[in-house]
Amino acid sequence: MIKKILKITLIAIFAIAISINGFAQETLKKIAERGELRVGMTANQPPFTMKAKDGSVIGYEADLANMLAAAMGVKLTIVETPFPELLDALITGKVDVVMSGMTMTFERNMKVAFAGPYLLSGKSILTKSPALSSTDEASDLNEETIKLVTLKGSTSETYVKSEIPEAELILTDSYDEAIKALEDGSATIMVADYPICAYTALVHPEKGLITIAQPLTIEPIGMALPADDAHFHNLIENYMTALTLLGVLDILEIKWFETGEWVELVK
Fold it and tell me: What are the residue boundaries of the structural domains of the chain, listed by start?
């Protein structure tokens, strides 16, 4: 059913997408000349973006990227990049857009543009402690005895430093490293976006990891774009509007965040 709806959606997007031929703006010209859309992702932020068993990159944002490239009539190339390096990759032109569970913040918006949000997320925790998993306020975790681990350069790092300053903070380059820190006991809690925490607890019940029922914050997730490129921004905004009006974002949210139908692809 989902595949059928996505196929219909692609046809609709093709019908309304602006042809990139003849566009004068720099980003679109480069995409047209290459015949390729380069999207920066970490490929390790499930279910936003992750590796399947066959080595392919799948996830909510991988689906969005595939549909965008198809609507533009170009090839999709996913450029796997560590999270702290994603915005630099965009600013220096190594990628055309960033789609990687990135929160739209004032500080980031001073460097790049954003389209969206296409999803609302929020900060959550992952832990082995049943007592800590019942928390509903960051202040409950603000103790020197608690060791927190989170992704370097993320809004989770900013959140911990602001709201949980007394706890010991460990920074990692990937969520895989953070989860290992929970497993080996070098960290008590991982702070991350709610979908990532929920996914990890769902897919790896054998690890004994627990998340909280509701996120601690609400955060808008969007697509980072090069600054000062009006035509490209217009194209992306039209694309996002089409997906919203056609109900595709709702379909993808059900597919990747509710049904769990894809879990066997990664286990």
Answer: 2-120+220-265, 123-211
